[in-house]
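User: I'm new to structure prediction. If I give you an amino acid sequence, what do you actually give back? Let's try with this one:
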Amino acid sequence: MKKNIYIKNKNLSNKIRIDKYLYIFFFKKKISRNKIQIHIYNKNILLNDKKTKKNKILKKNDKITIIYSKNKKTKNIDSNNILNIKIHYEDNNIIVINKQPGQIVHPGYGNYNNTLINWLKYYINNKHIYNDFNYTYYRYGLLHRLDKETSGLLIIAKNIPTFNYIKKQFLTKTIKKEYYALIWGIPKKKKDIIKNYIGRNKNNRIKMMVINNNKKKYGKYSITKYIILKTFKIFSLIKCKLKTGRTHQIRVHFKYIGHPIFNDKLYGGNKIPNIYIKYYKNSINYLFKIIPRHALHAYYLSYKDPITKNYKTLISKLPKDMTNGIKYLKNKL
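Assistant: Good question. You get back a string of structure tokens that encode the predicted 3D arrangement of the chain. For your 333 residues, that looks like this:
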């Protein structure tokens, strides 16, 4: 299915890029400019029937074509048991989900039904909550996200005042999030702070990377604190604290310092370094079976409660796959 948009004079009082035009005038800021740019890169958005660039300046009588995939309609799921959604905490204003590895948060290409958003639709309809929400704009109350393979705590608001109150904490960096991760190798420093700029990889729009040149222009400042909790000859179990919340931040930072997260397929953590193959190949291959996804878990969440104004702290135990993997490493390494 296609949607054509024709540019008229009144839309061009100032020079405007195609991505900005779509963000403001067509999508009404309901999806991010970054997503729009990805669709432009993937040729899902054309200008005058041709591939274009995100920074192309529009002219009078230009035609923008948006290409929609077939079968894109999402459905509500019949039961939360289908996705095995685990509610870690709930009160009158907030739900905190303990997301399991492999659970998808947002509908997208290849999966439009079995996602956390679909479950939220089901939960809304059956619990009769969120009555004052504009569902699309407020993303069903979802305040942040975790990658598909990352497990751990996700916070969801039940009403607009709570959504705005918690969202402000994300914007001002006063909300506290910490992660456990199993990484390759042993960093030289037991604890350290990684600081640099992260931007999108121009050669692969799915990936992020540390930006070294023109960093302020092409990347966002990113800070990750870490401490090593335990070492296993060729692996380290670490605890990370985010001072900023960039896409793939932890995964990118540890790839950058030469210690990618174990089994991170996007950032090279699924490849056995040559120096380990001779002595540890069989043990590592078995560990891949125990932990079949990147070993990252959002275990700690602390936010200021909208009613009491006191900090509420929630902690999630390591999921079964990471627990079993660490037990195996203790016995074998």
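You can read the tokens as a compact description of the fold. Here is one thing that stands out. The first strand starts at residue 2 and ends at 6.
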